[in-house]
Amino acid sequence: MRLQSPQFQALFTPGLRSVAELFEKKNYELRIAGGAVRDLLSGMTPQDIDFATTATPAEMKEMFTSAGVRLINNKGEKHGTITARLHEQNFEITTLRIDIVTDGRHAEVEFTTDWEKDAERRDLTVNSMFLGLDGMLYDFFNGYEDLKNKKIRFVGKASERIQEDYLRILRYFRFYGRIAEKPGDHEPSTLQAIKENAKGLAGISGERIWVELKKILLGNHVNHLVRLLYELDVAQYIGLPLNGSLEELDRVTKNVQNLCPKPMTVLTSLFKVKDDVTNLDLRLKISKEEKNLGLFLVKHRQELTKATGPEPLRPYQDFIMDSREANTNSKIWELLKYQGEEHLLKEMQQWTVPSFPVSGHDLRKMGVSSGKEIGTALQQLRDEWKKSGYHMDKEELLSCLKKL
């Protein structure tokens, strides 16, 4: 088939036209590869585009240099990737490769000009397609068929693909949550291969696992996929608690629908105690902000809840006003998502934290001189201000001070 969609046509910037001309002049083949092809076939505009070519890195360097094109960041060169910058745009172009040796984490590669051999070493059929710049689709493993049927399958034998890089187990779940229509539509042989190879994830770095896990948590079918992580013995190797609270996960995934939670908000539903957050951090090296959010939710999800009566938000507002920490606002928003309080969340997001209208300077003007007395008086006034729902102004508070 030949693709001619508006999304595809929009890719042809002055930069891409110039790149295409250079490759054509030298008779090197150049095609769009992997995820960008999948997105274009789904009618989406790809976020970033990878290109594949029959030219070797040395040939590309020679070609670009003699055309006066700037090359940037040569880190990818040993894997066959050259990044060229034309018309304020970066183009990441990789030579077709065959994996010679794989150890479950890294691969030693050899360059090839065989497009099918390169497709064969990719993880999933929907990620193994190429698109010529004339719109012609090159699809060796029925990826387009699988995409239309919303099926996620490994290229070739699942166990072989997984053993080349164990992170592909999580990539399988991530793309399932992104493409599959309903939960439970897996090939039994794929699930068996995942179960047999789950232990391989123990050797994968926490940072790489966390990148994939976060995407799983923000996709569809989250509770189904996390249950599978437990059923297939994956959970224990990626830092999840052994007896994660799956009922709470079911409840929270319903609560957070359409509320754009942070991945940590969803994940915390599995945790029963603070140690679960600490253990996750030890394995996955999550950010300080993510760890603090997890600890905050575990600590406050039960007792910090809306008030009955006319001011349901008061407990949350009081918490923010009493807090001495940064980011308390955003943590409270995540707590409201976790609790499924959609209306309160909207109100809370529109609430501006009021500033306390009285200062030590005001009290000195009224004749309170000792530092200790000023501290005590300010605290008493803050309590009065809080009781008023933060409505009392400076005059009311200072007249209140006279009574106190």
Question: What attributes does this structure have?
Answer:
cca-adding enzyme, domain 2, Bact_CCA-adding_enz_type3_sf, single chain, two-stranded antiparallel ribbon, nucleotide-binding, 404 residues, alpha+beta, 49% helix, Beta Polymerase, domain 2, 9 strands, 7-stranded mixed β-sheet, transferase, magnesium, NT_sf
Summarize the structure.
The chain is an alpha+beta fold and 404 residues long.
Describe it for me?
With 404 residues, the protein is an alpha+beta fold. The protein has four domains: 147 residues, 2-Layer Sandwich (Beta Polymerase, domain 2), CATH 3.30.460.10; 82 residues, cca-adding enzyme, domain 2 (Orthogonal Bundle), CATH 1.10.3090.10; 94 residues, cca-adding enzyme, domain 2; 43 residues, no CATH class. It has 21 helices and nine strands. The strands form two sheets. A seven-stranded mixed β-sheet has the order 3-4-5-2-1-8-9. Helix 7 packs parallel to helix 9 and helix 20 crosses helix 21. It is elongated. The chain starts with 5 loop residues before the first helix and ends with a helix. Its cofactor is Mg(2+). InterPro entries: Bact_CCA-adding_enz_type3_sf, NT_sf, PolA_pol_head_dom, PolyA_RNA-bd. Belongs to the tRNA nucleotidyltransferase/poly(A) polymerase family. Keywords: Magnesium, Metal-binding, Nucleotide-binding, Nucleotidyltransferase, RNA-binding, Transferase, tRNA processing. This is TRNT1 nucleotidyltransferase.
